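It is worth pausing here to work through a concrete case rather than discussing structure prediction in the abstract. The textbook approach is simple: state the sequence, then state the predicted structure, then interpret. We follow exactly that order.
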Amino acid sequence: MMHASAAVIISQPEGACAPIPDGSNHPSASRRIRDGISIATGSLKAMIHDRQLFWFSFMAGLVLLFLIAAVGWTNTHLESALLYSFTAGSDFLVIDLRLLFLEMICLSCFTLILAGLVLHRHATAEKRPVPVRDSFSRINSHTNSLLGLSLGMAVVATLVYLILTGTQLFGKIVFTISMAVFYMPYSYYFPNELYSALSFSTINIVSNSLVLLVTLYVVPEIVLGQKRLLPALAGAAGRISKTWCEMIGCLLVAGAIVLGVFTIALLIGQSPLLLNHDYDFFLQVSRGQILMTVACYGFVLACWSLLAFGITAAGVAMTDMCTGTRVGDSP
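Step two, the predicted structure:
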């Protein structure tokens, strides 16, 4: 008899994460990675079928806009910078404490959005859908733990930002990618303030994305597992060790999307060279041309939308994984 593998979402009692598998009768790593891919693609389908998820994406998009605007403001108001410098080996690192404060605000907002999303998705999976407003009202008892998590993640995100921008190794990598993908032709078509805000906030978004991977594991432990911060961190660590294959599957889907976006960005950024034109001359002559303007602004707008929806899809995928994804055989 032929058996097909499937990831089955098993209903859990309200307010509880699914037990962590003990490793017995565990399927192969490749099977679990495929299940992770199914979870990720399922979260994308959920974005289409559950219209209420749009509101979580909308709120995430607003936070992203605030992040971009705030980074742009800090770049144009250097006189109010609160700088702290230190040496790490051969690297001289400088941190603007306003960046830490900004990360605290943004990651607190992202964490609260994810908490409401987890509760909303869990209720929907239990066939007890609730309005978005009710999902957020149910996180009141977990506010202290969620904000504590946000503050800790803000410190980590700030350190990641310093590593990406201040160290010689990663600084060169970031600079090379930025020059190839983001510098041209946007510096010609965007106002200086907008271009500066987008350039620097992109690094903030990357650092936030890295710490949000951890946040995605911890938030369900807090709001569904009814745990305080430290027990939730311990529970998340155990779940990471048991579901890393599924996470790889999810990251493969996310990586494919990022690779596609990167390819499009590279095509736009290097379009003059692809057309065998002198770069600077081509951009100066084509400045103001409607097609190139639409391409630049349209691509940035598409990236903003994709990030907002991606945060929601990631929350949906992690909720499905936490609330009872099981790997088993079905006839």
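Step three, interpretation. Confidence is low (pLDDT under 50) at residues 1-14, 325-331. Residues 172 and 192 are 23 Å apart (CA to CA).
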